[in-house]
Design goal:
This protein is of the alpha+beta class and 119 residues long. It has a single domain, classed as GTP cyclohydrolase I, C-terminal domain/NADPH-dependent 7-cyano-7-deazaguanine reductase, N-terminal domain (GTP Cyclohydrolase I, domain 2, 2-Layer Sandwich), CATH 3.30.1130.10. It has two helices and four strands. The chain has a four-stranded antiparallel sheet, with helices on one face. It is elongated.
Length: 119
C-alpha cells in the first residue's frame, strides 16, 4: 500500500456564500483541499492513469461556485469533502474555506476533516 497526500492549495472562486445582505452577491472564497490517497502500490510508470487526477476536485469546486451558493461555510466544506470522497482511493479529506473580504482586518473560515467509514 502506498499513501500520498494530494493538495489543492488556495483555489480562489467567486461565489455566493453567507447569510448577510451584502453576501447576496458573489464574493471571493479561497479553498484548500488535502486528500489522503491510498494506492495499491507506488506509481511506477509516471502516468496519470496510475494516480488520482486532481482536476476533478478543481472543476467540481468551480461548478459549485457557479451554482446557487451556500448560506454556511460548514455546508460548503462538507459538500467539497463529499465530492472528494466519491473517489474510493481517498481515505481522508481536509477542506478549508476562507472568506478574505468579510472584515477589513481578518479573514473568516471553516475547516472540516472527513474520512471514509470502514465497516
Amino acid at each position: 500500500m502506498a499513501e500520498y497526500t494530494i493538495i489543492l492549495d488556495g483555489l480562489e472562486v467567486a461565489m455566493r456564500l453567507g447569510i448577510h445582505p451584502h453576501e447576496a452577491v458573489p464574493q471571493r472564497v479561497r479553498l484548500t483541499v488535502w486528500m489522503t490517497v491510498d494506492y495499491a502500490a507506488p506509481p511506477s510508470g509516471d502516468r496519470i492513469g496510475e494516480v488520482l487526477d486532481y482536476d476533478f476536485i478543481r472543476t467540481g469546486i468551480q461548478a459549485l461556485a457557479e451554482g446557487p451558493g451556500f448560506d454556511l461555510q460548514e455546508t460548503l466544506v462538507d459538500t467539497v469533502a463529499s465530492l472528494c470522497l466519491r473517489d474510493v482511493r481517498v481515505r481522508e479529506v481536509r477542506v478549508r474555506s476562507m472568506k478574505p473580504d468579510v472584515y477589513p482586518d481578518a479573514a473568516v473560515g471553516c475547516e472540516v476533516v472527513r474520512g471514509r467509514t470502514i465497516a
